[in-house]
Every structure is written in structure tokens, then in C-alpha cells.
Amino acid sequence: MNMYDGDLSKAIQGLREGSIIVYPTDTLYALGADIFNEKAVKQVFKIKKRPLSVPLPVAVSDFDMLNKIALVDDKARCLADFFLPGPLTLVLTKKSCVPGLITSGSDKVAVRIPDNDVALKLLSDFGPVTVTSANVYSNKTPGIIKDVRMQFKQGDVAVYLDYGRLHGQPSTIVDVTSEKVKIIREGVITKDRILDVI
Q: What is the signed CA dihedral for 130, 57, 172, 137, rounded to 10 degrees?
């Protein structure tokens, strides 16, 4: 995978300025905003036409960053060790630093570590970023930037990181906040594989 450093530094600059970016993940393109910038997060909801009652997932670069925003117990750590980076989203109890706007007022936050070099470099240099699919709410997520651009108005997104066509399937979402592990959405990783690992 080619790393366009110029584009990456522009994307990081955009995030620092409170702008929205589109970046590649191991599944599809995602809309990224600084999770601690309320104005930027509101803008993600607005341009996606996503109801404020539907929480935004967060991407981090590694376990250290994950530990800063969520409580990681043994079950979560076991799944994270096995599947991350990769197409698994863990629903965890959030730490108080995570704004309620991101989680729609819930005490849980959905977090993942994408298995994509560009995304990991971006996250490691910047910090936690939203990782919601780059589309208008309930529309199909396009695999190429040209089609992603067509869903948004000019000026909605400051930087598009174009890494060709992405063919990902959605991540599997697992809630590990209670005694019993709950699979919210079965994606690339099957329910059986999750249960085997636990």
C-alpha cells in the first residue's frame, strides 16, 4: 500500500482544525473527526444525516489508546488480543473523557483498531477518531472515493485520503460490558469464532 505522507499530514492538520476527513480502513472508507471536538462530531452527524440517538464508533491505533477511553476487562482483552487490529468492534464501558455526544448519552462506547496501515498511522499520530462509514445514513457505503464524494456537499469534507477501491465487509460488533457476551452484528468474524475465543 502506498503511503501518501503529504495527504496524511493534511488529514491530521484537518482533524486538528476540527474538520472532517475521509480515510481508508480494513473494511470501507470512514468519516473521521476528532472525538473530543464537539463541533466536529456534530458535523459528522449532520453531513451523514445520522440521528443523534445512534452512537458513533471510535477508532484507536493500539491497546494503550483503547485503555485511555474505555474499560478493558479480561474478556475484552482476550478478544482484542486475538482479533485486533481487524474487523471487530468492541462495545465497552466508556471512560469519563469520552463525550456523551459520541455515545448518544450511553455509558458504552464502540471501539475498533482497523487493520489498515494508513488508518493506524493517522490514529497513532493524531489520537482517537470517529470511524463511521463514509455515506449518508442508511445509504450503501461506496468502495471508491469518487462515489463517496457524490454523497456529500462540497466543503463537508476537508480531506479525502484516496487509496483505491476498498472491498471490505462490515465489522462484527460485540458488546462485552456485561457477564454474557452479546453479538450485536455479525460481520466478517462469525459468532462461532467469537465464542471459541472466549
A: -90
What SS3 state is found at 128?
Answer: coil
Residue 166: what pLDDT?
A: 93
For residues 30 and 84, give the distance between their C-alpha atoms in angstroms, rounded to a whole number: 18
Residue 1 amino acid letter? M
In CATH, which superfamily holds the domain spanning 5-197? DHBP synthase (3.90.870.10)
Give the pLDDT confidence of 11-59 residue by residue, as tens digits.
999 999 999 999 999 999 999 999 999 999 999 999 999 999 999 999 9
Domain ranges of the chain: 5-197
Q: Exposed (0-12), middle (13-18) or buried (19+): which is 1, by Cβ within 10 Å?
A: exposed
Peptide bond into 85 cis (omega under 30): yes
